[in-house]
């Protein structure tokens, strides 16, 4: 089932507002409208990704199709996730889920979240849940509609001054770890981990090139968080005797494989920046950011780095958050919200670090998100 965007004709007052945004972003004149409430050089934020960017609202029939028992994989809404927290810092407050919009041009101009809770980089047939390629097609259609509804130059500058946020890979690794952890193919997977990571990273790099060819000039690529520290992964691999744990109760071989993906993605982003000198692509290392928190929890105000705030069984890892009534009283003291997802408190720290480089330095490189926002294109 696909929903088409039916964009209405552009009211004159709205078109004047759009032109003023574009003009303001390429001069030093502050602008104010429904979407941009500061003088930043960003028109809109377009988000692509998996459960790191979507709570399930943008996944069709999510309660019926979810692969794991966690009906509430977020702390309440998408507003608790990293891209939305960054959007708030930029001054963008009206980013709607792709499948939650009513088709108005104003919503498209405000930014859209194309992400889907169980989206993967690799296409996996009918279970792909709006995979990377599907989301890229939705972005392409949206950009084409902008060009049809606005004059060509206005649309071009609007797209160039927007930020495109990519966060994939988490679900690809979760599926492989959980399916292969206790089988003979699991060892084969470990031995070919660099090959698998290379395939995934190349796909993300190709997506960045695709967006560049669609006139995107500001792109953020998120790494994968330390999956070996998630409550479900630690429980699952301990349950199958496939775990090798460190002092923080994280499964080391899982984290090693994720770390390799992040290393290759970081390297690839550097190459893309050399390839496209008129664009800026930023890699955000949420893996090292979260490991900093997990290794020094009290320094950041956390008390529990093992248990899910909302879940059942040992460390809340057997069944996910099927009701918000299950949630702990103080989520802000937990690193993990449910089986695989961090709490809003963690995301806020990561958002601060991504924005300014504090309290965790060098989370995003080669520049901070604040610097990306203010970069001229």
Automatic annotation (TrEMBL):
Keyword Transport recorded: no
From its record, what is one biological process in GO terms? lipid catabolic process
Q: Which GO terms describe its molecular function?
A: hydrolase activity, acting on ester bonds
UniProt cross-references to Gene3D superfamilies, sorted A to Z: SGNH hydrolase
One Pfam family, short name = Lipase_GDSL
Q: Which residues form the signal peptide?
A: 1-24
Q: Does the keyword Isomerase apply?
A: no
Q: Which keywords does the record carry?
A: Hydrolase, Lipid degradation, Lipid metabolism, Signal
The text of the family note is: Belongs to the 'GDSL' lipolytic enzyme family.
**PANTHER family in the record:** GDSL LIPASE/ACYLHYDROLASE FAMILY PROTEIN (AFU_ORTHOLOGUE AFUA_4G14700) (PTHR45648), OS12G0126100 PROTEIN (PTHR45648:SF7)
| Name of the protein in question | GDSL esterase/lipase
Q: What lineage does the source organism belong to?
A: Eukaryota, Viridiplantae, Streptophyta, Embryophyta, Tracheophyta
